[in-house]
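Hello,

Our lab assistant flagged a job as stuck in the queue for most of the afternoon. It eventually completed. Since we weren't sure the result was trustworthy after the delay, we are filing this so someone can double-check. Below is the sequence as submitted and the structure that was eventually returned. Let us know if re-running is recommended.
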Amino acid sequence: LYDDGQRFELSKMADKAVALAEKRLMDVKLGEFFSWLGTRDFTPNGLLGSVRKGQERYYNKYINVKKGGIGGVAMLLTGYVVLSYVWEYDHLKHDRWRKYH
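-- returned structure --
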């Protein structure tokens, strides 16, 4: 479909060099995953920065929008309910098998 000049330009644009540490998780290939994981900052400040960045991205994508709806808040509440259930599952499982007589 393309002549050689166009094909070369398309492949040249797609092969833009990006440092492995700057790639997002979804852009990392399976063979590069452990090398990429080694570039992550697992110190307490690095983990706190990652949580803050994730919170900021979530807020800007779902909450801080001009034409927002209930979707972002509902997703947050659903996550809270699921997380609470997971934390209390062992206790709930214990109650289920207990005899009350």
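-- support follow-up --
The delay was a queue issue, not a problem with the job. The result is valid. The radius of gyration is 23 Å. Residues 78 and 84 are 10 Å apart (CA to CA).
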